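Protein Record: Sequence and Backbone Structure Tokens
======================================================

Structure line: whole-number tokens from a learned vocabulary of local backbone shapes, matched to residues.

Purpose: to set a sequence beside its fold so the mapping can be learned.

___
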Amino acid sequence: MTTDADPSLALQPGQLRRVHHLALNVKDMAASRQFYGGLLGLRELTGDEVDDTLKDLVATGKVANFLLPDGLILDLFSAPDLDPPDPDPECTFTRAYHLAFDIPADQFDHALDVLHHHHILIAHGPVSRPTGRGVYFYDPDGFMVEIRCDPA
């Protein structure tokens, strides 16, 4: 990543509006649904509340979506073969899949330009879906981050 004094070569405070969703990989979908929905009381999204791009995955039990009190969406992705790197629960390993930031649609291409300018490794995308556009990339520690926007 390069550093430049030119502010047009970086996203500015306020361009990323909010965290859009958090995606977690879970080993046991039924147990996780019970934990987040039953124990913690989060409302699971169903029917038309589910993004069109996830409907098939939700219908086959590979994804579950929950609405958090602040409007953030928690996406659970079934990963039954995933094992943590350390069996000690005191280790701070999580099964977080990616963190998604929302940006206005008219600023999405600028965000792509910033990523390319700084030679950020793009993992996937940009992709266009009925729910908007997104690009997935890695932070310096290899954690996946997404910048996404609603349809223009």
Summary: The chain has a mean pLDDT of 84. The CA atoms of residues 63 and 77 lie 5 Å apart. Strands lie at 18-26, 43-44, 63-67, 73-78, 96-102, 122-129, 132-138, 144-149. Residues 29-39 form the longest helix (11 residues).
